[in-house]
Structures
1.
Amino acid sequence: MRLQPLSVSLVLALTVPFALLPAAPLLAAPSASARQADAAPVLVTAAQWQQMASEGSRYPWFAKEQARSQKTLQKMMKAGIDVPVPRDKGGGRTHEQHKRNYQALLAAGTLYRLTGDKAYVDYARDMLLQYAKLYPTLGPHPEGRGQIPGRVFWQVLNDSVWLVNAIQGYDAIRDALSTEDRNTIESKVLRPMAEFLVSEPKNYDQIHNHATWAVAATGMTGYVLRDPELVEKSLRGSQKNDQFGFLRQIDLLFSPDGYYEEGPYYQRYALAPFLLFANAIERNEPQRKIFQRRDGVLLKAVDVLVQTSYGGLFFPINDAILDKGIDTEELVAGIGIAYARTGDDRLLSVAQQQKRLLLSPEGLQVAQALAANKAKPFDYRPMLLRDGPDGDRGGLAILRMNGERGQALVQKDTMQGMGHGHFDKLNWLFYDKGNPVVTDYGAARFLNVEAKRGGIYLAENRSWAKQTVAHNTLVVDEQSHFKGDWKRGEEHAPQVRFFQADADTQIASAMMRDAYPGVVFTRTQALLRHPDLALPVVLDLMQVHGDKTARYDLPLHFNGHIVSTGFEAEHFPAQRPVLGADNGYQHLWLDARSKPGSEPRSLAWLLDGRFYTYRFGSSAPSQALLVESGANDPEFNLRREPALLQRVEGQKDVTFFSVLEPHGEYNGTAEYVHGADSRIREVVRTRGSDAEVIELRLASGARIALGVADDSSAKGEHSVTVDGHAYRWSGSHARIDRSKGDGK
């Protein structure tokens, strides 16, 4: 798990080649005297520093960032150096002070190079010498969690983050220090910390974002200390057998499209060490061609991370904090490095939204390009991002219409996402008008808020946020997918059936086996545009096949204020029952419940001046339940959010079908309402011999039909008759429109 945001706005990124190590196999670490013979900076060259110092003030973005950094650091310097004995969890005083210290070390090294002011050197040196006194006295952190506590921080991950930052600041001042001070700092702090990280294989020899930070920290330290052995272990694993290490992580954690296994939130977090260390490798060993590895997957990952956002915020799948977005400092580093290597002017518009850049060679390039007005709009587009190292372990389908703040549908057909993954196969989210409309809870956590259990993941993360009922996908017999075992979940990925993205029809379909014994479910979703509809609509088809009768629940978590319920229901205004006893159900209040029925129903809500009408039905009698999160939550850790749950009892097979329609406008200031009535009159589902058709009947008389074959590989013709009209198509699926007056 991840606790600390990296202060990347000052990260010293690396661009042009600087050959330090030979192409031949690396040898044992050189002697201390040999390492000290050359103290020149290697993470950013002296020539690059000189260019930034002489040219940076000419470019407003760079000059503004430098001024901001100077103001922040001078405030820290005025407060004095504080290197406390570690004692607190995340968010506590000593924890936060050590964070501020690595930020200060990074800033001091940067500003020394940009200004030539030796006061910055003195400040950084004195702080590092205090760490040289403290670090040898430290054992496992007193608040350490799990099997691998850190020394400076309560988890070893944060020690890695400290070193990634501190080593860059140290590299910038190293040649301004005396030999004695260099020896003390390196032998008492930097080398012992790097060796501590390498000595913990349960953290270091892993395929995980924790290990990425660790290998980046040790590898960058190895380059600065001229220690080829440290570099080799960072690249190939502590045993140098290529089973772990940085290169193996690149090969296994990203799909060929650049999608990161743990999802966007953790892609954002891991992006900084991946790119910063890759830059260090490119500088010192350009013959490795690290940015070309796997067809440039690290640079693809930058584009993918921006693509997996809406309204500036990342899609909150898996253990995600909802307020993390493209202005996060890790992506500031990513945009700068990616722009320097690709020259893609569309990345500059992202930099403009971030309102930040690096005080680095890449940051200077971004500032120069922005001053030259080269920025172009970023190309947010529909896409299928394959998951898994070979791209065959499901994927994330993104359907988009009407630009960055238009309509976006995200169908989550990805792998488990390791321990940070949620039990939500074939889950979906929907965005419109800059807002999340069909929502995902993300993580139950208040990051670094000490009053909320020290800022760690709360107990409700396991009891609610990870559970399947907290998401918009199928629940069988009130059990979560894989019975809540993420390691079992890692073994089974969805199968992508098809994906299509045209101007008026975008569609994705996937199948999931093994989430429940004997149950197979398939979800097909489409984003459809039609001239008789005000805005694109979402069509959703969930087909479930089981080998025994079961209870099937299909939740829809939505954002907005309910306007109308198109079904009769029993209400519980005086006393709110709790929906269930476990697997997330214990956290749901039951507010209303309909009787079982087969007729299509509707629910309408209002969000940010726009209406949303959700029409839904099923092939077997179902109940509609209106629920809200927050039950059994004595510490008020959960947000109170509404959901609609469709429930079918005692069936082996069932098909759920629905359409979500955005429409109309409510303006409270001007006191008017336009288009509050749905333009869809009815949604009809019809089953054929080997396919299904969902037909939308519009108020205009037009009809939109989506035909979906059971076998997505079938090339032959399919036919389904709806009220006397035969819909025929070939292949896996087809959209078929009928205008008013078309005969049967």
Note: The first strand starts at residue 309 and ends at 310.
2.
Amino acid sequence: MEQQNDFTVRKQRRKKISVAIQIVILLVIAGVVINALWTLKAYQPYPPQSVAAAPDKGFVTLSYFGVARVGSQELIGVNRLREHLEGLKKQGYVTITQQDVAEYYERRKNLPDKSLMLIFEDGRRDTAIFAQKILQDLNYKATMLSYAEKFDNRDPKFLLPNDMQAMVKTTFWELGTNGYRLSFINVFDRYNNYLGEMEPLSFNKVAPYLKRRYNHFLMDYIRDEDGIPKESYNKMRARIAYDYETLRNSYTNELGFVPGMYILMHSNTGSFGNNDRVSALNEAWMKELFKMNFNREGFSWNRYNSSIYDLTRMQPQPYWYTNHVLMRIKYDINEDLEFVKGDMNRQQAWETLKGALEIQQETMILTSLPLDKGLTRLKNSTDFGDVKLTVRLRGNRLGQQKIYLRADANLSQYVAVSIFNNYLYVTEKTGGGEKELFRLNLDRHDGKPIISIPEHKKEAEIKELETFIQYADTAERAKIYAERLRVRQLEPAPTVDEGAPEFTPDLSVHAIGDRRLAIAMRANKISVMIDEKPAAQDLTVTAVKPGGVYLETTWGNYGWSQRNLADDVYDGVFEGLVITDNTGQDKENIRFDARLQGWEGIRYNLNKYWERLINWFIVNL
């Protein structure tokens, strides 16, 4: 009985400790949210003296899809967003308003030399929560766009009219619109199967099997599988008019006005649609309802020679570092900008020859030039011969992160290890051209199954039928799709072993990369490990003369993307780089170590683990 009482006491004590820890964490999270939302400041417009009389330099527009505490493939993390905007603030950029833009085009109003129009799309609630504090701290003003349809659905993920009115009262926000709804027409998969019209939920389920053969609701006639319109001109006109009229009524009823800024979905159509008659209708409606329209995407710079209804915006992606944004703007406006360097003490070990290098704690971010490379050299490394090197490569899979060893000053001799578009390469150069010694598909290294094109086509069609069943508008239609699904599941699909061609997936520009690379060089042999698994063993090299260490990043050419088609800059990310001698001793001499040491390293790792803990609770509570 006494043992049972002791057990009960211990159990209650553990429970109290657990509850106390949870309360502390919840209080911290509450503090984070309150700090993000609470503001006693008001936006202060740029001072008159910052306005340039001449020459006119136009304005830059950046548009973010959304913001989250932890970044994802679509939403930028709050820390990364702060880095972007702080980088622009240090360049001298001030935000301008919709009224500034209107007066710029209507009355040729002079703008500041470095004018920024800042936009957040899609009307997400988390965007407002996490961007508010940053806008307040930097005295930046932004436009929040929304879809009017979301007002009717009352989806808690999206801002409602009372939320938007409260945002406007803070003075850091204006309102705009992406339109009435996001919907897709004339959808085909990568195998040219006609999928027709799709709403966002169904579209997202089949998105992995699509390419770029689809359209947005207002861009064209609704067509059949042969491209023939399924609607007359009058029906098409009524369909488009319904969207604009419903948008106007929804905003007027809920907010009391229609926002002045519009972004027509999708961009880069040449005019206002993929069909002249559709374009003319869109143009008439937008000029009736809105003051301005962003009709293009990919470039950031707007000037007098554009129409206020044909503006362009750049959409920074969640994986872009600050110098990526600055590099894109620099080459859009054709003016010098000062790139972010980060830790200046650590910068002293490197000489950047091309592109821009930022160093954050243990991480080196080497940003390439557009359509070109980034290149940096480790100073005092001219005598590196037999070495071991370890590093974590966290740049995206589309693109190149390359390490040169035993390199001379002109890069006419070297041994190099690179990961380029998800392939591992070992190459060398000894005075002539670069010679490939080894190549490995990293999907093979990971043990991913090899499937044939017919197998992937079957997989796509099964997923599409399952989606049609889930979102069928009637039970009868769902039964029809279910029968088609049953038949398709029973149909055989030849494999690669049976002679069918292998399916090679397109590499998305947004595909996140994360590889642990280990290189060992000794005499005329080199071995490489990827993610702690042997990749190349004892390859023979002829470049045996000691030399320097260089890091290089290269744009990976155009990959598959549904947005930001003009992006031609690449961020190589080298984390925790360590280089030691390779003499065969138990303890090798360290030649370079990017890891933080002592209490600095302990604090860095504790902060990292604490952030992960907070993020886990925010995601899972």
Note: Residues 2-37 form the longest helix (36 residues).
3.
Amino acid sequence: RDLDAFLLPYGYGDGGGGPSRDHIEYARRQKNLEGSVKVKFSEPVEFFEDMQEKGGPKNTYVGELYFTAHRGTYTSQAMVKKNNRKSEIAMRELELWSALAALGKANYPKTDIEELWKEVLLYQFHDILPGTCIAKVYEEVEEGYERLLKKADSLQKAAQEKLLSFENNENVVTVFNSLGFERKAIVSLPDAYKNGVVLAEGRYLPVAVDAQGVKTLLTLPSCGSVSLRPATSKVVKNGPDGATIVKTENGFTMENAFIRAVVNNRGEVMSFVLKESGREFAAGSMNGFHIYKDVPRVFDAWDIDSHYIEQEVDGIFDVTVEEIEQGMEAVLKVTGKISESTYVQYIRLSADSRRLEFETEVDWKELHRLLKVAFPVNVYAENAINEMQFGYVERPAHRSRLYDKDRFEVCNHRYSAFCDGAHGAAVLNDSKYGISMNDNRLELTLLRAAASPVMRADNGVHHFTYAFTAWEGSFADCDVVRQAYELNVQPVVMQGGCLDMSFLQIEQTNVMLDTIKLAEDGSGDVIVRLYEAKKAAVTANIYVDLPNMKAYSCDMLENVIEELTVVNGTIE
């Protein structure tokens, strides 16, 4: 309606095949052919300029243009989904630490970074990233990801080594945090730290020692590092253990200073209480696996059809739960079977955490099956929040209208949440992109098992972690974005020492650091890319630890827009 021009890409197929001689001849003949639409060769800029001269569009649309098909592409070929997430994170780490090292006159590997980014983008091509290529493609892509991640890690470590400034020996280590906010994390340390940790200012930290090694709970500065030395005598922890497990008749109670969770003998979370309010967030069995028949009418690897929900099958059995450890973190080990497959899951609660993590390994042996994990919560929300790039999109949490029912499977990045004005809950993930929301249930899609174009696609061993968290207060004030970053980005421990540092600090909690890199023009200028994560326009102060610096706002092509005022290292 009201459409008198249309921009039409043309050629063979949807895989990049260009126009043939026939296509070009057809377009030439329809340049001014009586009885048909007029056709001319053009380009997008010219098309939009022509439309603007005619007054612009008569009708506009605000909101998501949801595509009502190919919902399986968020999940098919889990290997690619995980490696895509890992590659994006690896490139972020590589650019950031390489840029900081370059400020100290180290070489910035610009050529290597560009080549690696091009490979990451190649693997984001359809049909690679959607999981709809033939088997040979995924054999090559898996090998390519392995090389890519290995090279990115090597270059990143080389940059971090340039930042180390003293005592390069096995008994001194530095822990790096790339995130743009202070965080607490459990880090693994060499055996020399079995007595405890000494920080640069002389403060002591206790450690936990088990079969996996030595670890400590460490506070890490925003976009910075801390150096550690081993204690010469045993550091005794004062006060009670941070995370505890109590065996009960029907399961286990996991608890720390912030939350109390009850896990039954099937590994399901029957209760999740925030201690600050006493509020119960579980509205049923959370962390409950559900397996469905998944036989799309067409486009096997591409589609999930809506009738899957009517075809749930019994398939979760032989489940056992046992306590592994408590103290610095509480850990339960869950083993069981899912239909023909087996799984092992570690449910983790860190001493200083507000999230329950589910580290999972599945030996997947299914055909035409769909695996989801459900989190029914005591939060009423008309819309769910799904993270997208640099923010989030809201989608219906109820299926009242046909348009709502169509969106029975949607995509998310690192988190999805339900919230009202007073409290909320979220499911986080480290490599899963498909999710469904209905009433008060968040159901993360874990695995599929298509038969075409790859027979028994995804059969094999898969490793992934998801988590659950809840909060009191509004979404604008919650820390779910930070928690999702923490789940995905781990601190790096390097042998050797340096002066403790924090390169960048952000005043506003809803403003996130996405990227630090050197400018593409070779000037040596540092590009800092920030975004606002919660649809809340704010003014933020950014502190950067650089002497005598000048700062400019720029566009995404790194063209200068205007100079900014810098006062004592702080940019508004």
Note: The longest strand covers residues 460-472.
